[in-house]
């Protein structure tokens, strides 16, 4: 049994395939707070495929919650198929080594089964993908590692005593 700073590493790797909006919501939650280098985002026009490799924060790893301030990350590949068009906002002047934080993947249904998928990054940067259908795969790769940092995004917990929260 492998150990990760004293914690067993037996949590299974995720392998997700989203083919409808509800599936994509689950996949989006799994990649929330993933870090990805600008140079690792790629579009293969001939294959109509957009893909990237990221360091995914494992929100599902509850073993470290309450034990330490950190958590674990794992390399993951994300592949979005049947992409007809790609539009990026705020990424063109970044070099390939710039690290981005993926906040979510959102979907807008067009003429079914067509969809517009948007990768939303911290800092207001986006990648919008027009696709013939929702066909998104995410696969964890390799071994996870401990990180002392848990994603925060500067959001505060709502104050239960404040009725405006």
Topology diagram in text:
Blueprint: E1 3-4, E2 7-8, E3 15-18, H1 21-31, E4 34-37, E5 41-44, E6 49-57, E7 71-81, E8 83-89, E9 99-109, E10 115-121, E11 126-131, E12 136-147
Write a concise keyword list for the protein shown above:
single chain, 165 residues, mainly beta, five-stranded antiparallel β-sheet, 48% strand, disordered N terminus
How would you explain this protein's 3D organization?
The protein is mainly beta and 165 residues long. It has one domain. It is 7% helix and 48% strand. The chain has one helix and twelve strands, in the order E-E-E-H-E-E-E-E-E-E-E-E-E. The protein has one helix spanning 21-31; strands at 3-4, 7-8, 15-18, 34-37, 41-44, 49-57, 71-81, 83-89, 99-109, 115-121, 126-131, 136-147. The strands form three sheets. It has a five-stranded antiparallel sheet. It has a five-stranded antiparallel sheet with strand order 4-9-10-11-8. Strands 1-2 form a two-stranded antiparallel sheet. It is globular and about 45 Å long. It starts with a strand and ends in an 18-residue tail after the last strand.
Spatial strand sequence of the major β-sheet: 3-12-7-6-5
The N- and C-terminal alpha carbons lie at a distance of: 45 Å
Radius of gyration: 17 Å
SS strand fraction: over 45%
User: How many discrete structural domains?
Assistant: 1
Mean pLDDT, as a whole number?
87
What count of helical segments does DSSP give? Answer: 1
- Biggest sheet statistics: 5 strands, antiparallel
Stretches where pLDDT is under 50 for at least 5 consecutive residues are: 1-8
| Helix/sheet category | mainly beta
**Spatial shape:** globular
Helical fraction:
under 10%
In total, the number of strands is 12
Q: H/E series, N to C? A: EEEHEEEEEEEEE
